[in-house]
Amino acid sequence: MIFIDESGINLALTRLFARSSKGERARDSKPIKRGKNVSVIGAIGIDGLLTQMSILGAEDSLTFEAFIATKLAPKLWIGAYVFMDN
Fold first, then answer.
1. Are 8 and 40 in contact (CB under 8 A)?
2. Domain segments of the chain: what residues?
3. Cβ neighbours of residue 26 under 8 Å, at least 6 residues apart?
4. Which of 33, 37, 50, 65 is the most exposed place for a label (fewest CB within 10 A)?
5. At residue 68, what are phi and psi to the nearest 5 degrees?
């Protein structure tokens, strides 16, 4: 069994909450510019990570097809089941 999932993140992501010593204010810098978006597609099997691919920007159908054809298909075996969410 193989499970595929995709996730995205902005590289300028900042925390909204922080910790500090009692009586002191938590301080941190915040990026001025919006960061770039990164999409990550991964395939996990029973024994762990099978393959992954990360790209700058959003994933589309062409990117997903390229992941399947170049990264996942060569690692599949006869009788493998692949599950994905939408």
1. yes
2. 1-6+34-86
3. 18, 19, 20
4. 33
5. -60, -50
Positive or negative, the Cα torsion across 53, 8, 1, 73? Answer: negative
Total-model pTM: 0.74
Contact 84, 6 (CB under 8 A): no
Q: Six-digit token pair at 27? A: 């301080």
Q: How many other β-carbons are positioned within 10 Å of the β-carbon of residue 40?
A: 14
User: SS3 breakdown of the chain: % helix, strand, coil, rounded to 5?
Assistant: 15, 35, 50
CA-derived radius of gyration, the chain = 19
Residue-wise pLDDT tens for the chain (86 aa)?
999 999 999 888 777 788 889 999 888 777 777 889 999 999 999 999 999 999 999 889 999 999 999 999 999 999 999 999 87
